[in-house]
Amino acid sequence: MNKKMTSLLLAATFSSGLLMAQSITEDFKPSRFNQPGQAYPQVNSQGYARFRVHAPAADSVKVSLGLGGRGGTVLTKGTDGFFSGTTEGPMDEGFHYYNLTVNGGRFNDPGALNFFGSTRWESGIEIPAHDQDFYALKDVPHGQVSQILFPSKSTQTSRRAYVYTPPGYSKDLNSRYPVLYLQHGWGEDETAWTNQGLAHLIMDNLIAEGKIKPFIIVMTYGMTNEIKWGRIRDFKIDSFETVLVKELIPYIDAHFRTKADQPHRAMAGLSMGGMETKMVTLANPNVFSHYALLSGGTYAPADIKDKSKVKLIFLSCGSKENPEGVKKAADELKAAGFNSVSYVSPNTAHEFQTWRRSLKELAPLLFTK
């Protein structure tokens, strides 16, 4: 390559980079999940994220892999001791975990709230979604999310669960409600579906719009964190199945106004929670009648011995996951006579925006008869 061509190529590359930088819309606002009063991290309407961290004694700060991709976002130190930078590209809509690498050590961002994921408390950031209205905090009647501690003889301790009761539950003492048992994914816990997934707001809005019949949601720890990443096949369901079926469900039926029978009981889970859901539902056909796997595998017609026991099978994933496999599995179930529905979240992967949307699509299908 001659010098003239090299010069032209370098000029074009520089110009392209400059145009890319100039193309970022400067309408950045604090993320939904910032600590109170904290201006950073920020997000813009295109899906870029911008960070600013005070670390005057540090030599290097990088935002964790996944934010903007390509090894993370390296922040630049200013003379004021603040490190700042913007992701190289836009991110998927919705919620994302992240952390900071400061001089080689891993830390959370002091500007952001923390969320339990990947077996630890991680920083979280929210990229505004075009369809975020369905989980927005609105002026509608709100349900209640309460923490309960229930006795577990099998584990010789008291265990924790969170229970969503719909608006009006505490006033209409004559009504009883169906129950959805909703499981988190690997490395998360029973706080995930409300903290990251905003399940309570999704429910409140759907109920206010008259799109669903009110029901209770129960979220408990799936005992998944004892399994290290890459060793999911070593997971054994027995202990969790005992806690859920023999201890938690009887406790919920005794302490909440439930419709305590199989036709009014559902189970769903995201990712590894989907694996748990599949294993538990197949082993307990007299306990659950509605099954849902959210980025958590599929059912096959041969898996289910008594078709009459199953009212619904819901399968979902993001469009960047395995949409064809999910659609194919749902079609095969439907051809075999099951009430089977598939849903693919557009332009998302294995992430909470996929699962928020999945819950929005699932809820109106539950307990309709």
UniProtKB/TrEMBL annotation:
Alphabetical keyword list: Hydrolase, Signal
Record Gene3D superfamilies: alpha/beta hydrolase, Immunoglobulins
Signal sequence, renumbered to the chain: 1-21
CDD domains: E_set_Esterase_N (cd02858)
GO molecular function (one): hydrolase activity
Domain of life: Bacteria
UniProt keyword annotation of Repeat present: no
Magnesium in keyword set: no
Protein name per UniProt: Alpha/beta hydrolase-fold protein
